[in-house]
Amino acid sequence: MTLVMLLGGARSGKSQLAVERARAHGAPVTFIATGEAGDDEMAERIARHKAGRPSDWATVEEPRDLRRALESVPGGDTVIVDCLSLWVANGGESDGVAELAAARAGLTIAVTNEVGSGIVPDNALARAYRDELGRVNAEWVQAADEAYLVVAGRTLRLE
Predict the structure, then answer these.
(1) CB 3.0 to 4.6 Å from 105: which of 75, 86, 137, 150, for a disulfide?
(2) Is the pTM of this model over 0.90?
(3) CA distance to 24, 36, 118, 144, per residue, from 97 (Å)
């Protein structure tokens, strides 16, 4: 049906907008979470995100195999993928996954960070991550029907 991309900085409101759009769509929702609670702060962040979602939504926790997670969801369900940034950091394989998401019968909303607008990282690992996430984001936006830059909870449609 539709692949919608929400790109923005940390704490820009991307996840909240994804939840609002999925809720308004009216179909059953599956939330695919790519984050892992590697420390107390991340565990707290994950708990806050869970608390902000309706209790009747299904949750699939999958930090790496996004293809398998997407294929496990009934075709007509709405899917939120939150987020591609963590999926890339976790070593997820991106080949063809954007096209799979775009080809689903139901609405798919993907959340990701835009990390290319800041300063050039001072180390090779951070630069490689920035470059890889930029490539993945471009791939997903190319496959998307709609893409928005999110800043302070407001959206700017990308054409």
Answers:
(1) 75
(2) yes
(3) 25, 20, 27, 12
